[in-house]
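hey m, so remember when u said the tokens were messed up on ur end? i reran from scratch. heres the input so u can diff it against urs
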Amino acid sequence: MRFDVRWIGQGGYVFYAGDKTVCIDPYLSDSIGKSGGPGRLVPSPIDVRRLKVDMVISTHDHADHLDEESIRYLDAPGTLFAGPGTCLKHFRSMGIQENSLYRLNAGDSFSDKDLVISAVYANHTPDSIGVVIEHSGYAVYLTGDTLYDKKLLNAKEYSPDILIACINGKMGNMGYEEAAALAAELGVKVAIPSHYGMFAENTENPERFEKSLRKTSISYFQMEYNEKYSITDIVKT
């Protein structure tokens, strides 16, 4: 069965797992810029109105991870909206119905056939989470926003093949050297940089992450905006 991933910018990803499509932290508007904050450096790679998903996960309640402008277009019959308690509270305030909400605090999980989604510890906001997605015999660990913390190694119990890690080193996130150290400590096969290239005030050069990984046996993989990649192919790089 297919297990693909597409990067939609910042910490946002779309996973295609069999017949299910899961979107994590979509920021597909310029709502922050329009409200007086930093504007996007790149246009949205996809028209959110054309994005059809079965589940939306927000890892924490910050505007570039729970973006109301994006979420409203994804609110369709049958779509689940998941995340920690603060995110569920925000979803409710937007009018999303209770039967469309699914709580994912650290330690919680969701399963559907061969798809398992587990929420893991993140050190960013009081209830922020990382996410491990398991499907077709592979596990992908997405850190979400987080500082480096030894508790992140709890994700090792899932034996992740791929680490998608924030590298920007600002505003409550670990930097590229810490992300490379985390990849080595987890023993993943491939590491992918995340959370860069969206805002001038909060970005990093992913080549620095690649250079840090050269000290390890871990393969580096850099995703392009809106390109769909097979998880199997990434692991074999």
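this time it looks ok to me. The radius of gyration is 16 Å. if urs says something different then somethings off w ur setup not the seq
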